[in-house]
Amino acid sequence: MSTAIVDPGRPGPGNAGVVYRFLRSIPTWVLWLLVLVWCVPTLGLLVNSFRGRDAQRTTGWWTLFLGNVDGFTLGNYREVLSAEAQGGIKVGLVNSLAIALPATIIPIAIAAFAAYAFAWIDFKGRQGLFIATVALLAIPTQVALIPLLQMYVRGAHLTIPGLDKTITIFPDLDLAGTTTAVWLTHAAFAMPFAIFLLHNYISSLPRDLFEAARIDGADHFKIFYRLVLPLSVPVLAAFAIFQFLWTWNDYLVAVVMVGANPDALPATVKIAGQAGEFGRLEHLLTAGAFLQAAVPLAVFFLLQRFFVRGILAGSVKG
Amino acid sequence: MTVTDDRSTEPASPDAPIAKQVAIGDAEATMRGRRFSADAAFRAAVLVALLAFLGFYVGAGSMVTTLLKVAVAFAISAALFIGANKLFDQAYPRWTVFNTMLGGVIGFTVFLLLDGNRLLRELSPRPWLWAVVGAAALAAVMFLLSAPRQQLARLPLAVAGFCGFGVLTAFATDETVHPGLDWAALLIGTAVGVFVVGGIGMMRGGSAGAEKGAIGGAALGWLIGAWGGADLGAGSVGEALIATVVPAALIGLRIGLGAEVGPTRRRAFDKKARSWIFLVPALTFIAAGLVIPLLRTIYLSFRNDDGSENVGLVNYEDIFTNKNSFNLDNWSAFLTSRLFWIAIGMVGLGIIVGVVSGRRTRQAFEKGEASLAPIFIGLFLISCAVLSTVRGTIFNNIWWVVVVTTLSTAIGLGVAVLADRSKGENIAKSLIFLPMAISFVGAGIIWRFMYIARPESDEQTGVLNSLWVWLGQISTSGAGKAVAVAALALMALGLVLLVRRGLRTKQNTLAGISLGLLLVAGYLIYRFIGPGLGGFTTNEEGVTSSRTILFLQEGPFNNMWLMVVLIWIQSGFAMVILSAAIKAVPTELTEAAKMDGASESQVFWRVTMPQIAPTIGVVVTTLIVTVMKVFDIVKVTTSGDFDTQVVANEMFTRAFGQSKDGLGAALAVVLFVAIIPVMYLNIRRMQRARI
After folding, report:
1. 3 state SS of A158
2. DSSP B585-637
3. Which of residues 561-600 of B touch A (CB under 8 A)?
4. Which of B3, B460, B683 sits opposite A131 (nearest CB)?
5. Of the partner residues B26, B286, B504, the one whose CB lies closest to the CB of residue A136
6. In this complex, do B439 and A9 lie within 8 Å of one another by their Cβ atoms?
């Protein structure tokens, strides 16, 4: 083999070898330079979140590595996490959880039913309905926000055309400005993607399994919760992680649905609001932004395999 | 010793970050092997502890309330679902029980809805008492109907039973809704119902179908004609009776005429119903949360700002004639921009290289990295030059899509290729991927700190301005200038060596990249020696002082600085997908090419690239969707000021900041229309995968 491959760049002895090795290592250098550049912004935020207001405003964060430890403090975090402080983020974190948890758990169950039906129950129009569902994957959230907000504010009413009559389809439950409105919206938006993802997995389970269960007299319901649910744990986990991060990091839906109610704002909306008044709360913004990112980053470092899979599985989502 | 590619000695690791077919979301293979390892358990434990700490810190009370709410919502949904399944479990073995229960459920729902709309007489507790009454009545009717086994008894029982239910409903209605019947509307409605439903029945089941359809259609038409056509509140109980009893009797007739339901049909019925039980919850969410709002948004886009008046296409006209969103005034300016001419030069260079090297291989134009890369980069720069002169929201969005999609894919591909042959591959890839975990809001804030510009007399605290000012200080001090020029000259020397080596070994990629960098180095040397470089300014008296760049405010290239934020996030995404695709290229192929004497760059461009081309397509379409609706980053950094507005942020401002629903809806529709091609591609891709 070594004779078959003629390496044209084969180094000669002596100094040329050093040069050659240096040249070969350039791609590696470029890679690590890029990695360094990619880390600098996050690192800057992290370091600055431990520096007091004056330090943040007068010296660069990198001076910490040059031995400038003035103004190193945990005060930002203390202030951000205390309930009363202006620029506090504690309530925001609670609200983020109150949105992300139901928005993750409820779609999983509902989508699993539908995914099972699409995969293993024969009915007319199955193919068409499934394609229609998946077609909704890439739809931008924006197209549904105005009518949904209207519905949460005053319910949904249908006026019969040509007549002067109105029927209430969805009563005004006073949902606007509550976290419920946010997670309901997220649940609806997650549905096509969840069905798509779970269907791909559930439909790839071996057919023999279902036939054996059918022969044993199990009906669809029994097959679903005895067989399909336990076997689908991996894909359910991947979806759960993706959906949790998606809703935790969401800004648009939250700011539209609860933007007017300061008590129900999730962390993203809170820090975005503080970013609006940059100068005054700038030093707290670092700590707040880092706390908001702490949950996704923890998931990232501890469950990286699942995290990557969840993110990538979600790559088709709109 | 032969220099071999790492990939040939070390097969694609089974731990490759993702499965090959990303779009399929294939999650099983890698997960199974590791489900219960100690490492995984440890990580999970740390994570749970962290979440528990967070939960405890932010207040156990509110956590418990949240969890309780989730549990209740979950329990109600589960109970409904299991209840429906249990109900239909009865359909086959116990037909009567099933019918009675079904009648109860339907009666309950109908009366609940009627009373919920305040159409029934006052009876407290509202609306539950009426719902129970309705449930009991319809359950009784259905019980009567399903109990007897003789066809003879079915018809009178059905008609009588439903008439009774009709009478109850008529008397239950509140006097304010008693219909003043309009006989013309009633008869027309009935006739239309008979023809439409009867016709459908005829098509599906011949004359018997037509008969059944006609009866059902008559009932439906009568109901709609009587209640819809009437002047509600103007009639009497008698008229309410006519409006309800006749259709009820018709429904009874329709059911009574049908044959008794045998076991086979029950089985089929059970199966059909079951698919709907599994589907209906999800479809309800999709319909109520996506499809109907989408249709309503389209409808609203043709209405005025509070939706009260039809205005036709005014909103769309507004978008495409408004100077803020669609401004072509200055388009010719790109002809005088330096960027544009450099780009044209690159395209020309690419064409020349292609033609010259094509002469060697007897082609009109040789397609290779040396010819295509300059053309591609040139076209990219031309689009940037053009898009920086045509201004407005729409063009900003297009600019975002072009730049972010191209650069994210390119950087992702570059990192995937570089990392594929280096030590610490996983660490490097993790760190590039890390920004994906951070929210767009968080990323916007992080980069604001990068771009921050302090007053020019102060020390800069943003990394970029600090570097810029530092460059300026170097290029204005004699010693600094000398050192910088010397360093650059050394680099240029190295690059010359690289170019020579690349040319000698026919590694065109290496030669091309080095040549490009050499030109940059040359330009930098010129700047250092000549006019100087970096953030400084010299006034008339010759005193130099530092000058900062207002990255977010100085247009039109502040748009590019915002795009950097999204590129920073999305490159990791492109990298992971493309890296998996590269690892999935069979080593036999690359080995065979190397045996035939292909250089590394030839292997990459001629073997690997065609193999991963479909994956690049997936990455690009996905990125286009993401970029098209970019919102958070612009909102947090500039809020759309300084000419950085994009469609999604404009839509948010109009619809939710200024309550201009019509205009906001029209902007949302523009976004939707722009995404339709991608939807089409997704469907095509999926259909191909299923075949």
Report:
1. strand
2. S-HHHHHHHHHTT--HHHIIIIIIHHHHHHHHHHHHHHHHHHHHT--HHHHHH
3. 568, 571, 573, 576-577, 594-595, 597, 599
4. B683
5. B286
6. no
Q: What is the pLDDT of residues B9-65, one digit of tens each?
A: 333 333 333 333 333 333 333 344 445 567 777 777 777 777 777 666 666 666 677
pLDDT at B415 over 50: yes
The answer to whether A136 contacts B444, with C-beta atoms less than 8 Å apart, is: no
What is the least distance, in Å, from the CA of B226 to any CA of chain A? Answer: 13
Range B611-618 average pLDDT: 86
B400 touches chain A (CB under 8 A): no
CB B552 within 8 A of CB B590: no
Q: What is the mean pLDDT of residues B171-183?
A: 78
B281: chain A residues, CB-CB within 8 Å: 110, 113-114
Contact call for B434 and A42, based on CB within 8 A: yes
Choose from B132-146, B290-304, B348-362, B584-598 the range with maximum mean pLDDT.
Answer: B290-304
Strand B231-232 to B179-180 pairing: antiparallel
- What's the burial of B480, exposed, middle or buried (CB within 10 Å: 0-12/13-18/19+)? middle
Q: Name every chain A residue with its beta carbon within 8 A of the beta carbon of B597.
A: 6
Q: How confident is the model at residue B269 (pLDDT cuts 50, 70, 90)?
A: confident
Q: How many whole angstroms separate alpha carbon B364 and alpha carbon B194? A: 71
Q: Which B residues in the span 421-450 are in contact with A, Cβ-Cβ below 8 Å?
A: 421-423, 428, 430-442, 444-450
Tell me how far apart the alpha carbons of residues B622 and B680 are, in angstroms, rounded to a whole number. Answer: 13
Residue-wise pLDDT for A244-267, tens only, equals 888 999 999 999 998 888 888 898
Q: Which residue of A has its CA nearest to B80?
A: A110
Can you give the pLDDT at residue B30? 39
Quickly list H helices, B287-392: 292-300, 314-321, 338-360, 369-387
Query: pLDDT, tens digit, for every residue of A4-54?
Result: 333 444 444 445 567 667 767 777 888 899 999 999 999 999 998 888 888
B352 touches chain A (CB under 8 A): no
The share of chain B scoring above pLDDT 90, in percent, equals 10
Q: Which residue has the tokens 């239909």?
A: B88
CB B436 within 8 A of CB B569: yes
Kindly determine whether residue B444 and residue A275, on different chains, have CB atoms separated by under 8 Å. yes
